[in-house]
Structures are given as structure tokens and as C-alpha cells.
Here is the input.
Amino acid sequence: MSTFNPTMLQGKVALITGGATGIGKQIAITLGQHGANLFIASRKQEKLEAAQAELSALGLHCHFICCDVRNSDEVEAMIAALLKQYGQLDIVINNAAGNFPAPISNISYNGFKTIVDIDLLGSYNVTKAAFEACLKQQGGNIVNITAPFQNGGASFQAHVAAAKAGLDSLTRSCAVEFGRQGIRVNAVAPGATGDTEGMERFAEASPEYGVNCPLGFVGHKSDIANAVLFLVSDAAAYITGQIICVDGGSSVDLLKMGQI
Ligand code: NAP
Here is the structure.
């Protein structure tokens, strides 16, 4: 049973990019289970169809559209399709991202650019299109899914760290500019999160990955989704421009003494 009131998002519409898989799908499920109507978007139709079927089987109301967030025309078309379907948009979750662990010497010029294009520019495209099409008139919530490691050096993640550092900056700038329009903009930074492709890739490279946090266990997708749910709820009405790490304390354990 949820800690939160199951009707708290009744009448709201939520867009989740990358909402067909992993953390994004769990965010969709959690927002849907608290009353939101859902719209998920990513590149691959088969993943979206499978997720829609799964969400519908849970009794949730979900539509989808294929969209590459790197393409601003596709993003504008996605927002238009959502508004045609639901007539409103209240919650935007910028979750779509790419990732592959690699040392800087093995990241190609194009590989680095691709990650920045998806994680940072893609989130900007969606934010801008949603703001112009509706949020600036009616207010709403934006939550960017970032990461906890970009404030330090991040081996094997230089490309992602650079993109997510930009996303953190975008989060704060949007919060400052959009506040008077009734739009709150925050970010959630997942640590190692179990049962995700990202986690699997890192666990292959380093079997201890994620376990060595102060809380001593790998997080669940529902931990991330619950933080998102809190941020889009009225309980967070005075919170904007914040980046909440949901990482078992990894980001504050600079000396890693807890592991000794
Ligand atoms: P995931 O399952 O790989 O999800 C990424 C999603 O983004 C996929 O559904 C993918 O769908 C979509 N996507 C990729 N490129 C896209 C594009 N150009 N346009 C539209 N959609 C695109 O990843 P995840 O592990 O759940 O991660 C979700 C978020 O959490 C990401 O922002 C990630 O950086 C962050 N995060 C995850 C972890 C972790 O431990 N998993 C840790 C820190 C941060 P298509 O292939 O259909 O496009």
C-alpha cells in the first residue's frame, strides 16, 4: 500500500519521456497509481506498446507516441498529440537518456555528443515545447532525472556527467525563470538502481557497484518514483530548483569510511 493518498494526482496529466522502460516506466506506474493520466514517449514503438499493455493491465490510463527527444519538431508534435488526447499537461518528467560506461579514451566524438544531445538538449527540447504550448498558461511541475556523480569526477561516465551537470544547471535556471508562472522545476538523482539496464551494465564492469553506499543496498525503481511523486505533489509546494539524491547516501560519503 502506498504512503501517499492514491487520488492525489486525480485529474492531472503526466508526460514521461523514456517511460516504457526501467525507472521511467516505474515513474509512470507510480504517478498513474495515484490518479494521473499518462503519456509515455520514446523512440521504439514495440517497447511503448508493451509498456502501454502492461500499464493498461494495471488499470492505468496510458497513451504513447514515438518521439526522439533530440528532434525539436518531433518533440513539438509529441506535445501537440498529448494536448489533443488529454487537453492539458500538468507534469513533465524528463527521464529519457542514453548511457554506456567507457573511459574517455574509448568514447568517440559522436558518442559523447549523442549523450549530451539526449540527456541535456532532449530535456531542454521537451521543457521548452511544454512550456510554450501550455505550462506557461496553467503552471505545472517538471522533474528532470539526473545523476548523483557529476559534482565530482566520474570515471567511465565523463559524457553522462557532462550532460547531467548541464541538466542540473537547466533545472535551476528553469526554476528561477518559471516560478512566477506557477511552475516548479526539480530533479531527482538516482544512485545505483536495481533491475535497470544501466545497473546491469555497471554491475558487469564492477560487481560491487551500488552496494557500497552508506545504506548498504542497491535502490529500487520505486525509491526513485516515490521521490518524483513527492516532488510533483502539493506536499512539495514550496520546493523548486532542488536536486534530490536518492542514492543510499553515496553522494555524501566522500571518504567511503562506511565500507571499512
Ligand atoms: P533505460 O531503461 O535505458 O531508459 C532510458 C529510456 O530513454 C528508454 O526507454 C529509451 O527508450 C529512452 N530514450 C533513449 N534515447 C532516447 C531518445 N533519443 N528519445 C526518446 N527517448 C529515448 O534507463 P534507466 O536506467 O531506467 O534510466 C532512467 C533515467 O535514470 C535516466 O535519465 C538515467 O540517466 C537515470 N539514472 C539511472 C541510473 C540507474 O542506476 N539505472 C542511475 C543514475 C541515473 P527508446 O530506446 O525506445 O528510445
